[in-house]
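To the wet lab folks,

You asked to see what we're planning to order before we commit. Fair enough. Below is the target structure as tokens, and below that is the sequence we designed to fit it. If anything looks off to you, flag it before the synthesis order goes out.
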């Protein structure tokens, strides 16, 4: 009997296959169902529209912002104008933006009160300073571009241009200045626990998304609108 099934199936198919019959019936059926569904759909839809005279506008899809180009992992920054900078207390040659300088001094005083000796090593740097550092000093050290970029940003791409970044050392351990083992000093431990109270944060912690070498000495001020936008607008545009 199972052998008969294919034949039995084939035979009526052949016989009833009068041109246009099945498709027409199917077509009318489909049309009917569609009309009923459409009518139901319309009446169902019209209700919430009456109840909500001010429907929520369709959200506009945000155009994807163009990410600024990085150079060897560093973001571009503009140079702070000279009249926005001031020396950090007795360090005439180390300047920061006025607000950052004031907070830095307050932070140094607070640390000192707890027996911690924070010293500024480097603050604002012009693009010309950075050119000298990146091209001349690093060439003397025999470093190729990628090696240079691990510890120094190319000119036009250093946070030091903004006047908000400062390299900090421990006055009692100068041998750790600009070294990764600065993170073993009392100064670093104090900064980890207290710098945020003065709106300073570490720019390049371990495994930072920018891929810049760990720099426990390099801190930036993010305590006002301009500094926040300077660092976080650049950053958010770049993170995928
Ligand atoms: Zn630095």
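Sequence we intend to order:
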């Amino acid at each position: 009997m199972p052998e008969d099934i294919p034949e039995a199936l084939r035979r009526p198919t052949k016989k009833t296959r009068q041109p246009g019959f099945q498709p027409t019936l199917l077509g009318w059926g489909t049309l009917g169902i569609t009309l009923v569904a459409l009518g139901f759909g319309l009446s169902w839809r019209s209700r919430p529209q009456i109840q909500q005279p001010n429907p929520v506008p369709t959200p506009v899809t945000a155009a994807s912002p163009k990410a600024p180009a990085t150079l060897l992992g560093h973001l571009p920054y503009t140079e702070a104008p000279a009249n926005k900078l001031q020396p950090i207390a007795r360090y005439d040659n180390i300047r920061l933006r006025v607000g950052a300088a004031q907070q830095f001094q307050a932070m140094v005083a607070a640390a000192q009160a707890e027996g911690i000796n924070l010293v500024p090593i480097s603050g604002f740097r012009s693009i010309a300073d950075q050119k000298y550092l990146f091209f001349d000093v690093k060439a003397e050290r025999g470093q190729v571009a990628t090696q240079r970029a691990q510890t120094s940003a190319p000119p036009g791409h250093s946070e030091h241009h903004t006047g908000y970044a400062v390299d900090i050392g421990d006055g009692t351990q100068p041998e750790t200045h600009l070294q990764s083992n600065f993170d073993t000093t009392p100064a670093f431990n104090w900064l980890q626990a207290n710098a945020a109270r003065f709106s300073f944060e570490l720019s390049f912690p371990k495994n930072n998304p920018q891929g810049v070498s760990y720099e426990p000495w390099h801190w930036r001020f993010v305590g006002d609108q301009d500094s926040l936008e300077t660092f976080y607008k650049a950053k958010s545009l770049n993170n995928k």
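Structural context that might help your review: The domain at 82-238 is CATH 3.30.1380.10 (Muramoyl-pentapeptide Carboxypeptidase; domain 2). The longest helix spans residues 21-51.

Thanks,
Computational group
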